[in-house]
From TrEMBL:
It comes from the Eukaryota. This is Protein kinase domain-containing protein. Keywords: ATP-binding, Kinase, Nucleotide-binding, Serine/threonine-protein kinase, Transferase. One of its GO terms (molecular function) is protein serine/threonine kinase activity. SUPFAM superfamilies: Protein kinase-like (PK-like). Residues 158-459 form the Protein kinase domain. The keyword Cell wall biogenesis/degradation does not apply. The keyword ATP-binding applies.
Amino acid sequence: MIKFHKSDDSSYESSTSEIVVGQIGILNEWEHLENFKQLRSPRIMSLVKEFVELDTADDYGTLSYFCCIRNDDSGAIDSSSQELPEITAVASCFRKTPFKVACRSPENNSDDFDYSVEEHSAGKRLIGNNSSDIESDDNDYYDLESLLERNDIIHERYELGVPLGTGSYGWVVKCFDRQEQTQVAIKIFKLSSREAEEEIGMLEFLNNADYKDEYHLVRLKGHFLWQGRSCLVFELLSMNLFEYIEQNGSLTLEETKKFGHQICEALMFLSKPEINIVHCDLKPENILLCNSRVKIADFGSSQKIGREMSQCNQTRFYRAPEVILGLPYDSAIDMWSFGCILVELYTGIPLFAGHDEEDQMNKIVEVLGIPPQHLLDQGTSTEIFFHKMMPSERYALNPTGRECIMPETRSLYSIIPLDSKSDSDVHLYSAFMHLITHILVYDPKERISPQEALNHKFFEFLS
């Protein structure tokens, strides 16, 4: 039996060999445990993650689906049950007590956020308790929540339903459109949100360019001002890929190929010369299911190549090396994120899950080795992560106070094992690994492009 002991001595069990780890001890065992195939089960992973400090969860956006709340307060989950905890809304997957997570805020670049969940008549809602965020916005976060409590209908058209999520921008709420008699998702921004204007402009441009809805981009149905706040009306889609993995476990290679091809088609469209847009925050949470298709959402951080490029706020797990090192960036950063997502879909585990940006770089180096010298020479942030050794002038990792990281000591093949021994699966796995090794390349000029990826043998013979 694997037993994960809590401080209150309650335990969780599942059928495998006996390993007993404490709430603190599991932090040291995490790197070892994550390699076990049995831990990819969503049921087991959710138990393991609950014992790991959520700093290791890193930038799962608002971490809105990281740990499911149990259906009762018994403190136990029946590992033999085939039923998953009921999820009534996005926020219902948070712990019932406040906890600390690590994520990066575009406003203050802080890694420390506190979140708590409170019960409301419309469902469970997530409240961000970042003090600097609240002070700078005159408690607008709480004002917005209060507005949602007092109003059943907004803009004389949309009936408020359950909240679907929250972030630094405001809220996303499920609504019923009385005029069109259909369900929609409305993104309600805080007061005076410049990001709303930018996202509206970006989405209108993209939706007009993709007027046939062929390239897997979320559709903006409209927008309006309500109580001084910008509101964006979207088509209502299903769960995102992170939720899908949490509920169903890792995907097969065939499923990974199917979803991956659609994501790559979207990236190919975005990288067209006449479009030239970098998403800048591609991750499983921003890829939503729509029947058998996926759609990419959240263009609030997107950049138009050719205009003045602002600081990129990629989520850390999916952050490209050139962004970490402070180098100029383009659409190749989305391809790096895409490679990380492909691996996560197949394994069920984030590929590079750094505690902070320094640890993120270390985890990449552990697999890919030291970045090329010409990139390190040009990076404005290189000295944060590397130093030159004399007299060779070669770069080495800076000591971090954590465990010593040796470059290229973890193989992609050990991280991404083959699940099946059939000839067809071996062939597909070989093509998959070939694609991954051509995406996860330090130099963005040498990284495979979306068009090249679509022509790769991994995406042949889509079922």
